[in-house]
């Protein structure tokens, strides 16, 4: 009778399957179950971006266990699959593409365990994001990214502040405008806040005392105005601070000196007027310091004890109206790779030998100043630098010609050759060397110049013949 019991058992199982079909999770071919409502929410959300013609065939046999498409990731909760990561946009060849007439469907916010949501180059036509629905993701979402979506316009929704579990908020190169919502201050769990490349205006909220774990803060390429808030000094974990290309003004807050872990500070192209010497030199961890394009007080900048900032790798002080001589402390920065001093009002001589001894220096820009005297860099230095050395537009700066057979030697452009002095009795002969080539390689010429000259005995002879030999090299 055992076969009767077996048949009866199979009948019960079959009946249970039929009765529970509508409420039980579906079982995929690999045995991983997924709630029907979760799958329908996912498919509907994707159709909103890719169009109704998308039917999930790329995710066959299920979107989790056998996913052959980039952009959908899942995890198990109570032995059921749930979507945890969703990336929309063609980051990879087999990513989920976005149609021009996309729309954000409400089903997107029904994904119960969504931790990461990204949109890459999806919104190309003008569209604003609704304020509603975001709160439903607040209990789980840890990463939200809008990258390269020029069609995203309007203000950033105030309800973004309800996503209190966020660790990363990236709003990069979109069309968002208006003031930054104050609710951003609620995102105290953030480790990365990137709002670069938008059209945000107004002042930066002074609430950074809540961001104790923040590592990266990038507000560059917007139209933020006012001063940098003093609470920025309480982001004690901060590694990168970039507020470049805005309209910030005034002095840097004294509290910025508290950022002992900061490795990058980029303030370029603002209207910041000072507050450096007493603060920035305290940040010994700085590797990249970019201050170009700010009308800072020259004494403030030139008063920095640069030798204390021994970890500097990139230093850009260009276009700041700096006056005085090149600070000697710069020649002590052994890790320096890039030094930009161009387009200032610097005077005095160039410490060529000291700068050349910097072992890592690979780019030096001193063009567009009032430097004087002679450049004493070696041929090896010019060969190493190539076009990464510029010294032109210094009317009273000259360069000794260096004869070289090396193809890698690039003489500094825009500098006149120095005059080499020889003394013969009481007569000083000024000899000028030039690397000019003559069309006729077989010929050379001599030129005589008649000038005034002062002899070593103090007498003036008018119309003294002063010999200057110009060698026309091939």
UniProtKB/TrEMBL annotation:
Keywords, in A-Z order: Cell membrane, Leucine-rich repeat, Membrane, Repeat, Signal
Any single GO BP term: response to fungus
Signal peptide residues on this chain, from the entry's feature table: 1-19
A Pfam family: LRR_1
GO CC terms, sorted: plasma membrane
UniProt main location, coarse: membrane
Localisation: Cell membrane
Provenance organism: Eutrema salsugineum (Saltwater cress)
Name this protein carries in UniProt: Leucine-rich repeat-containing N-terminal plant-type domain-containing protein
């Amino acid at each position: 009778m055992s076969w009767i019991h077996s048949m009866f058992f199979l009948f019960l199982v079959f009946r249970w399957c039929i009765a529970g079909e509508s409420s039980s999770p579906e079982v995929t071919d690999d045995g991983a179950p997924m709630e029907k409502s979760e799958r329908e929410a996912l498919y509907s959300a994707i159709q909103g971006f890719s169009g109704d013609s998308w039917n999930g065939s790329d995710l066959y046999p299920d979107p989790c266990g056998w996913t052959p498409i980039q952009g959908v990731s899942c995890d198990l909760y109570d032995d059921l699959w749930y979507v945890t990561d969703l990336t929309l946009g063609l980051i990879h060849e087999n990513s989920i593409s976005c149609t021009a007439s996309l729309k954000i469907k409400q089903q997107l916010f029904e994904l119960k365990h969504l931790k990461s949501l990204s949109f890459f180059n999806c919104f190309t036509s003008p569209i604003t994001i609704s304020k509603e629905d975001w709160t439903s993701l607040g209990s789980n979402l840890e990463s939200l990214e809008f990258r390269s979506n020029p069609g995203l316009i309007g203000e950033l929704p105030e309800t973004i502040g309800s996503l209190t579990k966020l660790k990363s908020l990236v709003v990069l190169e979109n069309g968002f405008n208006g003031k930054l919502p104050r609710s951003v201050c609620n995102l105290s769990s953030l480790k990365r806040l990137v709002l670069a490349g938008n059209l945000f205006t107004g002042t930066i909220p002074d609430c950074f005392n809540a961001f104790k774990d923040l590592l990266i803060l990038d507000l560059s390429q917007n139209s933020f105005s006012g001063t940098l808030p003093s609470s920025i000094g309480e982001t004690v974990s901060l590694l990168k601070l970039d507020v470049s290309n805005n309209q910030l003004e005034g002095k840097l807050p004294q509290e910025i000196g508290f950022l002992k872990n900061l490795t990058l500070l980029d303030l370029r192209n603002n209207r910041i007027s000072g507050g450096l010497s007493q603060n920035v030199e305290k940040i010994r961890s700085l590797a990249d310091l970019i201050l170009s394009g700010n009308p800072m007080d020259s004494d403030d900048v030139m008063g920095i004890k640069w030798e204390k900032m021994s970890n500097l790798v990139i230093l850009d002080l260009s276009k700041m109206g700096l006056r005085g001589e090149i600070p000697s402390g710069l020649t002590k920065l052994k890790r320096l790779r890039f030094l930009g001093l161009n387009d200032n009002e610097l005077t005095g001589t160039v410490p060529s030998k000291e700068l050349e001894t910097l072992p890592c220096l690979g780019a030096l820009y001193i063009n567009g100043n009032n430097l004087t005297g002679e450049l004493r860099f070696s041929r090896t230095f010019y060969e190493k630098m190539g076009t990464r050395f510029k010294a032109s537009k210094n009317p009273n700066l000259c360069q000794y010609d260096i004869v070289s057979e090396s193809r890698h030697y690039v003489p500094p452009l825009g500098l006149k050759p120095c005059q080499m002095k020889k003394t013969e009795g009481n007569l000083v002969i000024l000899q000028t060397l030039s690397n000019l080539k003559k069309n006729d390689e077989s010929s050379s010429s001599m030129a005589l110049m008649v000038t005034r000259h002062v002899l070593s005995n103090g007498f003036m002879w008018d119309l003294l013949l002063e010999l200057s030999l110009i060698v026309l090299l091939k």
